[in-house]
Amino acid sequence: MKSENEEGQAYVEMLIALPLLLLLFFAVVAFGRIMIAGVAVDQAAFAGARYGAESLSMEQAAYQAFLASAYNLEANGFDADLAAWRFVSYGRDGWASNEVAMAVSLGDLPIIGPLLGPTFVVRQRVVFEVERWKSRW
Amino acid sequence: MEEPVVGLAKGEEGQVLVWLVVLLPLLLLVVGMVWEGGMMYRTYRIAQAAADAGAHAAAMHLDQGAYLQTGRILLDAGASEAARQAALRNSPAILDCGAPMIVGNHVELVCRAALRPTLLPGPETIVSVQGRARPGWGISGEGQ
Prior knowledge:
The complex is a heterodimer of chains A (137) and B (144). Chain A is an alpha+beta fold and 137 residues long. Chain A has three helices and three strands; from the N terminus they run ααββαβ. Chain A has helices spanning 4-53, 58-75, 112-116; strands spanning 84-89, 95-105, 119-129. In chain A, α1 packs antiparallel against α2. Chain B has a domain at 63-134. In chain B, strands 1, 2, 3 and 4 form a four-stranded antiparallel sheet that branches. In chain B, a hairpin with a 2-residue loop joins β2 and β3. At the A-B interface, α1 and β3 of A face α1 and α3 of B.
């Protein structure tokens, strides 16, 4: 027969081990969310920079870069309205730069949410040489 | 009749903690390896995109003079430097790039990138990334 002390022992040990294991579990979930958003943001920034660099004028470039970025985010299942983007053309330098930033929500994850904060911002910037064959920048 | 003992036997108190102490470093190692794998994969993807941007930059440097004179499509003298700059500006992992080459109607650029572990100790891995791009008007001239 077990004594009452021995029965309690297992619970105490579980109480110590469980938060650690839960922390690891939610950290892996948070990491997964950040990685998926990272891949989407990379793709969006790349597509935006490329379409911007391939447009015919500087005015069109910013709009095309935005559309390409937004389309890529939506295609990866993210709400493009929540992303921030910035397209900069360097004009005579011949370079176009596109930056996309998106906040990943972690607030709903116990333990890791309070540790890392409610959101984690993933950003990526891609620079492309402007298509000088076509454009009149 | 004596009941079978299913709980902790005498002297087994603290077993879970002992196991935890033994297994936790192992668990952390696995988590660390997952982290490193993920970070290296992202670095690789960005290096790949940087090589594509480099190939694209080289594709902006077609030698118009040579084309008009000989009808051959060649890259001009500034192509290598433009490709290198574009690749380096897009990824800090890029070490160096070879000379961009025209293959079919694409420009190809091969770069070397270093994947470094961020948390765990370990050697850096050098990988080769190949970028491809086609200028908007097409080397074959279909967009003209």
